[in-house]
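Lecture 7, part B: from sequences to assemblies.

Below are the input chains for today's worked example.
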Amino acid sequence: MLTSPPKTYRVKSFGCQMNVYDGDRMAELLAEQGIAPAPEGEDADLVVLNTCHIRERAAEKVYHDIGRLKRDDGTSPLIAVAGCVAQAEGEEIMARAPAVKMVVGPQAYHRLPEMVRAASAGERVTDTDMPAETKFASLPRRRRSGPTAFLTVQEGCDKFCTYCVVPYTRGAEVSRPYAALVDEAQRLVESGAREITLLGQNVNAWTGQNAKGQTVGLEGLVRELAAIPDLARIRYTTSHPNDMTQALIDAHGEIDKLMPFLHLPVQAGNDRVLKAMNRSHTVESYLEILERVRAVRPDIALSGDFIVGFPGETEAEFEDTLKLVDAVRYSQCFSFKYSPRPGTPAATMDGHVPETMMHERLLRLQAAVDRDQLAFNAASVGQTCEVLVERRGKLPGQWLGKSPWLQSIHFIGEAEIGQLVPVEITSAGPKSLAGTQLVILAA
Ligand code: SAM
Ligand code: SF4
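Predicted structure of the full complex, as structure tokens:
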């Protein structure tokens, strides 16, 4: 059925920061076609559901969201399903959900405008190709940014951890070219970014050729970006222990703009489990990396990802994870119950751990992490900390921002969005800090 071309769009992104980045790029693409963002609270003519396949029952949630888009008169907006669920289950979505007119994979969304035209002409279109040329060259140049911005530098993964769908949904590891990244970073800074977080499924596997034609790793890119005068902070995520080179570790001791924060997922604290996960590092080699990072940057805040209840995980093996947490003292962590992903080797392994046991392990792990997170935050009380102001708080005179160690801080003061201001920390909780701005800006 022919529909008139959409005038307004809404992009709903779920899951990781890379999806947030992709969602922003899709929004820019649609805006370039003259389609406007739908005003808050109003129906959009075109809705992009930018999905994540990592969480449990991901596909079910997508069908639920599609159902909720149905209007009272029985019609639906033009619906596009994008992201990793689209890549993994696109055909089934098309078969099960007639309201969906477009299925677009994470490597194909630069073709969204053509797909929207075809869908408006009554076609149903699927594009889950993983073309050799990257989508990035076809995307519009960046024109807007808040004080913090994401910049995808690397995509895909060749590691094939046995529980993970990413190598299947995002494809092989690809690094974007150095010059394109420097250009995109400069544009983000010109449009207001003071902090850039470099993103990749294995961001520290990024490699490229610098302006002199030398092959460099992520530290080379960070060094170049640190030379952009108005860029104040650089972060990167997510890293794999095996790609944590000494050069990148050294950069933490040498480049002031590289923030003292490292997210280095370990997944489990037991070598048998790590081997079954195909993580290709051991507990000892992981701890040794952290030691080297702490040697060059003693104040570094450490973060990690954990999976509890991987098939075959015993109580004693889970307790090894708690011991690892005790040894590291993370400033924050993400922890997940193992969830079987169709097509991954772990899904058909023996010894699936009962849900109640996984739940109980998750609570114990989170209690240990919360304890360390609170201790880490409490150590800031009475200290002065530089905060990058991201937005206004709900209370009069209240502002929200982040410390160099990625702690969320709300403070009372007279700031402006995008400024770096000194804040005296007055109290700490497990998830955030509160404080007072020390220098009030002149009117
Ligand atoms: N590349 C990163 C790494 O190596 O750790 C992380 C990528 S993955 C998108 C983010 C996190 O989701 C993983 O670190 C893992 O803890 C979690 N995860 C992935 N697959 C999972 C599964 N099947 N069940 C539970 N958690 C999972
Ligand atoms: Fe997934 Fe990360 Fe393992 Fe790659 S390294 S397979 S993205 S968990």
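Note for the exam: The chain has a mean pLDDT of 94. Keep this in mind when comparing with the next example.
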